[in-house]
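Per your request, structure below.
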């Protein structure tokens, strides 16, 4: 029997997408599982709290296979083709084994010089702007993330803008027809690209996935190649864009942590983990469906293909697991956060996302010692939907320039602290002013 809806996320405004944590905390205080309505209009069971989320992530009664979804759910499938996020064991085990043969830590390690070089080139272009202002999403986070995953997979650079539009619509649009159209467009493009690579293979990951076979001769089918290409491309840049943007925003809003990181850039690895915990770029998991009654935190969710969402963003803010969870602290012990998932569906691309975020944030802080927000954070536009979370835009300024309506008495006549171009790294000013909270 269905219970009353505890929260209608489609009725919430911009403030919820900007800061959903108070809503999740209120639900968590009332229990670990709640009936909710998602922005797409479907009703779902939302799991909150660290322990309940961790248990749900590994519960075999919660299926990722869309064939187990109730036909009454008014939902559009999130991805093209068949992939790791739409399969259960043993099919999932087989797919992950095949993909893991090519998407290895060694392959990710070889990307480090390219990540550093592209980051440097993007910062060169950004810092050359005459007014000392930029949108960090457009200038750094997006082109870095889409550029690296595009090169890795062998997607021509001129097509990456289309992928961004398709991905945002497929993952965030509340309109089912828009989501279906975006998924269809991406499927058609990937089909053509894979056919082309079969005839003219390269040294990219998609070509490798076409060639790869297991010891027993098993290989990815045409539909699985489309699905895995979609998964690697979309999750490969969406998560990273929002991790970088949310990370920079968190640092600029917490000047003590920004100064601590500037003083010791060796903390960057743990700082990235704290961003993942504090501002998870994946707010709730992709869809799971009940294959039978399942009890989570003492609450029984009915079988029959009911939709279940797991709030990863709330798991990182649970005081039972992380003391003083709303405090952003780059020295915190963050081990065990769930922002990349847990269990068999743990994110395959986590090392690449971490590499890009650490490289981008480090280079940005090294080359721009007076970086500051150029817009009130309370008015920043955020991604809609419950899956991907992060600011759509992140206006920043440097060279001492201030927004016209902020910090009275500190206008454009203030002393300038110049951001460094590539050749100026040895001449940075010794003093680093405090950034705006």
């Amino acid at each position: 029997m269905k219970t009353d809806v505890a929260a209608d996320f489609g009725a919430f405004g911009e403030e919820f997408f900007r800061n959903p944590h108070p809503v999740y905390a209120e639900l968590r205080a009332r229990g670990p599982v709640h009936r909710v309505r998602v922005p797409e209009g479907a009703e779902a069971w939302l799991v909150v709290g660290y322990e309940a989320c961790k248990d749900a992530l590994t519960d075999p009664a919660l299926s990722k296979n869309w064939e187990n979804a109730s036909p009454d759910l008014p939902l559009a499938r999130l991805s093209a083709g068949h992939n790791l996020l739409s399969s259960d064991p043993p099919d999932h085990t087989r797919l992950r084994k095949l993909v893991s043969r090519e998407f290895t830590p060694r392959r990710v390690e070889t990307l480090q010089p390219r990540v550093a070089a592209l980051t440097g080139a993007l910062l060169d272009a950004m810092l050359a702007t005459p007014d000392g202002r930029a949108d960090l999403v457009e200038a750094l986070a997006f082109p870095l993330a889409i550029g690296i995953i595009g090169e890795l997979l062998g997607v021509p650079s001129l097509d990456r803008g289309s992928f961004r539009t398709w991905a945002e619509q497929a993952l965030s649009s509340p309109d089912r027809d828009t989501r279906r159209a975006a998924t269809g467009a991406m499927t058609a493009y990937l089909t053509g690209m894979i056919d082309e690579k079969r005839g003219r293979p390269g040294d990219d990951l998609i070509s490798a996935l076409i060639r790869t076979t297991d010891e027993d001769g098993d290989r990815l089918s045409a539909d699985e190649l489309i699905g895995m290409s979609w998964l690697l491309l979309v999750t490969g840049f969406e998560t990273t864009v929002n991790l970088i943007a949310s990370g920079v925003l968190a640092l600029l809003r917490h000047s003590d942590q920004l100064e601590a990181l500037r003083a010791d850039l060796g903390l960057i690895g743990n700082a990235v983990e704290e961003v993942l915990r504090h501002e998870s770029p994946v707010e709730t998991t992709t869809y799971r469906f009940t294959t039978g009654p399942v009890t989570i935190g003492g609450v029984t969710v009915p079988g029959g293909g009911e939709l279940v969402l797991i709030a990863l963003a709330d798991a990182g803010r649970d005081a039972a697991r992380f003391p003083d969870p709303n405090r952003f602290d780059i020295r915190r012990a963050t081990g065990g956060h769930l922002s990349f998932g847990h269990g068999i569906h743990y994110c395959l691309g986590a090392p690449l996302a971490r590499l890009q975020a650490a490289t981008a944030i480090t280079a940005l802080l090294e080359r721009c010692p007076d970086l500051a927000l150029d817009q009130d954070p309370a008015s920043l536009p955020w991604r809609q939907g419950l899956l991907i979370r992060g600011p759509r835009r992140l206006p920043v300024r440097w060279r001492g320039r201030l927004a016209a309506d902020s910090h009275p008495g500190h206008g454009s006549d203030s002393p300038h602290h110049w951001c460094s171009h590539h050749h100026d790294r040895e001449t940075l000013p010794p003093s680093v002013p405090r950034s705006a909270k």
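The radius of gyration is 22 Å.

Regards,
D.
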